[in-house]
Amino acid sequence: MKWTLAGLVLLVGFAFLSGCGQRKGSYTFEMTLDETLDQYVHAVKRPHLDLTVDPPAGIKGMEGLEASRIWFSSLVLGNYHECYALAVVDGPEGMRVVLDQNLDRDFSNDAAYPFDPYSEGSPYYLSDTLVIHYNVDTGGESCTVERKIYFIAKWSEEDRWVRYEFIGHRVGRFDHLDGEPFGFIFFDADYNGYYDHRDVLVIDTNRDGVVDGNRNSVERYLMSEPFMLGDRPCRVLGINSRGVRLSLMPYDGSFVPRDRLEVGEEAPGFTLKDLSGNEVSLDQHAGKTILLSFWASGCGGCVAEFPQLVKIAAEYADQDVVLFTVTYDSDMEQLSAFLEKNGYDCLVAIDDRDSGTTGPLYQVGPIPTLFLIDSAGRITYKHVGYEPGDEEELRKEIEKALPRISCQSE
pTM of the predicted model, to two decimals? Predict the structure, then answer.
């Protein structure tokens, strides 16, 4: 998913620091919290909270929760590691979450925030937004941070979990480095409530006004990674733990700048295993037109798109069009049941979403993601997501990609 930065009001500043502990040649930039950026940036570690029926030690005020069932957990935020007791309540008023926001170990003076289902009959629930305050050490000084947060739960007899999301990311611009500024977003990727070397910097490196924070994006960098700003190699020197200042310095080490995988380029080759454990590769289909789909059977858009791809591949089978799918399923029983139930008999290769090889190769972010590869091995089309009717556009792209046979009269 991507964001357009045009129109954002960024209260950013630039300062060249030649002393005060800064290294020579380093630059410091101001950042602000922008809560209008509510789209998703892939987290390094998605924070699922462990649930237990045993209340935390010393907690009071449970008698006022009016619950038939209560599960407990805790939320640790800030580099002081302040621990907030949390209760998920199932009672006459429905599902609610209660957080000990003032850290007094007493639920009786804390508000209960309702959980609403995503849709009727859905096992997934979303809480109202609440404001939380916690302390952060900013280099010897304590500072109180205010953040908006909400909770997401999956609640069924078979599976129960709760996780949380912050609202908003730190945003700014790298000014005065190489012509036009580079917009960027700094993301608390491990959700610990402060900014450090484990977090993620997403930079509009091509200055197209769009910042791509998806996994495998060429604009997404860990704090330790060098990157290019125009023709300047740079790296992060330091980050304020509140996320209000970020320092850069020139990078003089060796590294290979990232290239975008664009339409018109050669499709990278790879080898995976299918459901039977046999090795399969793109090279086995050299000379054919390939529909390369990245998907998972637990993804709603993927499940909607899949029968359309199977149908289209069958329509063009006599013109050497093949469907090559790469699944990111972790539950093989669920995957096999989906394929068997629908009678799908097509090539399904298996890869890991986080540690596999194909995601980085093809810079796969959200799924489904579809590539069309022509008989010469070039990418001619890429599409992310699925909406009804997308298949008509795909048919047109296939027609353009198919090799043309010229007929000459004698």
Answer: 0.71
